[in-house]
Amino acid sequence: MAKTSDKKSPLQHHFVHLNQQYDASQMGMWAFLITEILFFGALFTAYIVYRLMYPAAFGAASSHLDITLGAFNTAVLIASSLTMALAVHAGHTGSTRGIIKNLIWTIVLGSVFLGVKAIEYSHKFHEHLVPGPSFSFPLYPGAGSELFFSLYFAMTGLHAFHMVIGIIGLFILIGMAAKGRFNQEYSTPVEMMGLYWHFVDIVWIFLFPLLYLVLRHH
Amino acid sequence: MSHTVDSLKTYYLIFLALMVLTAVTVGAAFIDFGPLNISIAMAIAILKGCLVLWFFMHVRHGNPLLKIFAVAGFLWLVILVAFTLQDYVTRPWQDFEANQRWIKHQATHFEARAALPGNASHGSAH
Amino acid sequence: MNSSGKKTNYLNASHTLSSWFLTVDHKRIAILYLITISIFFFIGGLFAALIRLELLTPAGDLFKSDEYNKLFTLHGIVMIFFFLIPSVPAVLGNFLIPIMIGAKDLAFPRINLLSWYIYVIGATLATLAIMVGGVDTGWTFYTPYSTVYSNGAVALTIVGAFITGFSSILTGLNFLVTIHKMRAPGMTWFRLPLFVWAHYATSLIMVLATPVLASALFLLFLERVFHIGIFNPALGGDPVLFQHLFWFYSHPAVYIMILPSMGVMSELFAAFSRKRIFGYEFVACSSLAIAILGFFVWGHHMFVSGQSMYAGMVFSVLSFLVAIPSAVKAFNWSATLYKGSISYETPMLYAFGFIGLFTIGGLTGLFLSTMAVDVHVHDTYFVVAHFHYIMVGGVLMGYLGGLHYWWPKITGRLYPEAWAKLSALLVFVGFNLTFFPQFLLGYMGMPRRYHMYPEEFQVLNVCSSLGASVLGIGYFLPLVYFLWSLKFGKESPANPWGAKGLEWEIQSPPTTHNFDEIPVVTEEAYAYAKEDGKHHG
Predict the structure, then answer these.
(1) Where do the structural domains in chain C lie, given as residue ranges?
(2) Residues near C291 by Cβ (< 8 Å), separated by ≥ 6?
(3) What is the CATH number of the domain that holds A101?
(4) Beta carbons of A52 and B73 less than 8 Å apart
(5) B and C: number of Cβ contacts within 8 A
(6) Cα–Cα nearest to B1, from A94, A18, A89
(7) Shortest Cα distance from A43 to chain C (angstroms)?
(8) Residues forming beta bridges with residue C35, ordered by sequence position
């Protein structure tokens, strides 16, 4: 019902022209990203408050994270942002092949990120660093270290969840591209997914120094 | 619909810049700059975030309204953080050591009162 | 474009079940919302009735104290999350915004339908929580009680509230984009009806504040279910942090509730005074001012929570500022009446009621934002009375006034005017009888959330319970005559009130696509003729 009967045109019935529809999608996506900023923002607020309260505990706990894996993952995610940007670029130049190729790369890099994250999680699990009754962190037994790991799991977990959603979205886009839905005039979904993916990248850009680099120089 | 199409070179350059900045932030973390460490890490993160927003997310091609939208979320996050922190940084009892001293002082105060003759039965009721 | 005879409209365009449950027509979705939120209004009302019944006598003889805890909690949760927040925006806003700006639908019709389904899922989960044991934390879910100690179905309720939040976010996002991008040619910002301005401001809050509540509830869920301590003082966490995050949403949420009703008021005062709203630009901008200032005052809910004295003072001073744009509205509505040709139809009675009750609610809000006074009346019935004057006296009067005003447009039928006036009167009298005594009770020191009280409070409590039954009848009457009017009401012309606005220029009820041709707007909002606005070009 939302589509016009003309199958070729992506213009929906209640818009006057494609530009208006594009503007609406773009603005809607940015409004959605605003909500995402504030959704993660509450967690960042909690992080800042507790880091101010327990600087030593946060330093000790943070130094226990695997900085090599963290830095590697940062690089992987930035690379996936590049391939995503290239996919959007391919959309604008009307290259369906380019879209599909770059989206596949983005999925691969995103999956590598999640795989590394899973390895990190399993390490934490074996070291009893998952908050809860069995938590123990002998390096800093005082208050605050468990809060750090609570926030670590909440923030990275939420971030990973967003990546999983993103990867599902990328698969859907590949399907749409394979059906020939995109051309030089219309590749809005690819562009919107690009905004989402870059946003998730930005979240990680802040998570990485806040979680991994608190007190490395000691 | 016409999009402003960037050259591929722009994307590769930004990618390179982001990689370099990542290396710099990791390196800087291992050098002791005192309280400046966190500022350096955050400055680099903000710079990286801005590069992604400006180039990858095409904010630079957006109309003024889109730019306002791009800023609004971060601005509101600043409000949330700033107005929450104005509570925490002005709490005298958040100073853990001072807090301990205060508790100890109160405890000795009550013990001293309890020790007074005639006060023994209810001196430590608090 | 006036209706003549039996025309197809959005209601009779199709009759299958799927044409309702899979509709993307904003007007049908508004009807779906109308039905669901009415159900929750009566559920929440039932809890309120039980509370007032218990408080008839000083002894706690009807319910045990933990049952009473669940009653007031569920009353709060149902009324706030499932009735007040969606009420005006999701029903009237959904129906009217596209029509008022000259569009065929909202920008994202399918997301609009999705937001209704999300609302239904969230509300169903919370209802399930009521059935499996209820919640006793208060609607505020304060930690550590909610995470460590409470035995109720807290997790399920939180999930319900969390999910419903996304419905609110999607509605706000949809409105924002619609108002920005879907306006008809000639519909400039300062030609928008003030109802649309108010919803724009509301949508900003929905988008900017709701995610923080979602996040706070997410952390609370982690702590309660997986024992991932964030706010737990045993681990060094700070329960007050939860309050900060909670009120960052929940104070602006009050403006999510009241701003749309203020938008309704602007429409009513213009239509029934036959005048352009006095100081239109000021009223429009005051909505934005309320929305923005509302983000800087949340700490006034936490004066006695252990927040720092400095923070308390800052939040207190800033809270006073919200009074300025609110007063701008109240004064400008009053000034609109001056030399207007006022008629006293039912919606206007609600509008007068709104102004009186909202003023009392707003002014007592100033008492509460004064720190020294708040310490005295905090968590007493004074607070309960204050926010009911805003939320019930304000929001609900606006909702009912708006529903009466646009009912002929929504259904194409007229309701019986005499009965409607009676119900408006009952609501006003019943409301004051219920809640004014609570100001006195609170000032004398009766705390909220207790099912027993000293005997000297009984007279006022009986007054309050008596008022509640009058109020109940006042709310029940519209349900009866609205339903009656669907079958037996006279058919409404396109513009029964002789009012201005695009919604009155199309047939009642509108067609599925609202306009055959997108209209071109050439005049200001409320362009009533100087002498008599009954007839317009």
Answers:
(1) 26-504
(2) C201, C202, C204, C205, C252, C255, C259
(3) 1.20.120.80
(4) no
(5) 38
(6) A18
(7) 7
(8) none
β partners of residue A3: A12
Mean of pLDDT values over B112-125: 55
Please tell me what DSSP assigns to residue C386.
Answer: H
The structure tokens listed for C371 are 């720190």
Tokens representing residue C364 in the block: 């007592």
Residues A42-57 pLDDT 10s = 999 999 999 998 988 9
Is residue A163 over pLDDT 60? yes
Backbone angles phi, psi at C413, to 5 degrees: -125, 150
- B42-65 average pLDDT score: 95
In a domain, B35, yes or no: yes
- Is A9 contained in some domain? no
pTM, to two decimals: 0.93
Residues of chain B positioned with their CB less than 8 A from the CB of A38:
73, 76-77, 80
C324 has pLDDT over 80: yes
Q: Quick one: C26-504 is in which CATH superfamily?
A: Cytochrome c oxidase-like, subunit I domain (1.20.210.10)
C-alpha distance across the termini of chain C, in Å: 13
Alpha-carbon distance of C463 to C466, in angstroms, equals 5
Q: Is B102 on the interface with A (CB under 8 A)?
A: no
Domains: count for chain B: 1
Indicate yes or no: CB of C211 within 8 angstroms of CB of A42. yes
Domain range for B31: 1-57
The predicted model gives A64-85 an average pLDDT of 96
Local confidence band at A215 (pLDDT 50, 70, 90 cut-offs):
confident
Predicted local distance difference test score (pLDDT) of residue C533: 45
Nearest of C282, C293, C312 to residue C255 by alpha carbon = C293
In a domain, A163, yes or no: yes
Query: A10 pLDDT band (50/70/90 cuts)?
Result: confident
Cα C361 to Cα C385: distance, rounded to the nearest angstrom: 8
Residue B115 belongs to some domain of the structure? no
- Structural domain including A143 reads 18-212
Question: Phi-psi region for residue C412, left (φ > 0), alpha (ψ -120 to 50) or beta?
Answer: left
What is the pLDDT, as a whole number, of residue B97?
58
CA atoms of C51 and C384, how far apart (whole Å): 13
State how many domains chain A has. 1
The CA–CA distances, whole Å, from C429 to C39, C114, C417, C438 equal 24, 39, 18, 15
Q: Is residue B97 part of a domain?
A: no
Taking an 8 Å cut-off on Cβ atoms, the answer to whether B81 and A48 are in contact is yes
Q: Read off the pLDDT of residues C159-197 as tens digits, 9 standing for 90 and up.
A: 999 999 999 999 999 999 999 999 999 999 999 999 999
Q: Which residues of B touch C212 (CB under 8 A)?
A: 80
Closest Cα to residue C448, out of C59, C134, C72? C72
Residue C257 carries which side chain, given as an amino acid letter?
A: M
* Residue count of chain B: 126
Question: Does B98 fall in a domain?
Answer: no
Which residues 33-92 of B are in CB contact (within 8 Å) with A?
33, 37-38, 41-42, 44-45, 48-49, 52-53, 55-57, 62, 65-66, 69-70, 72-74, 76-77, 80-81, 84-85, 88-89
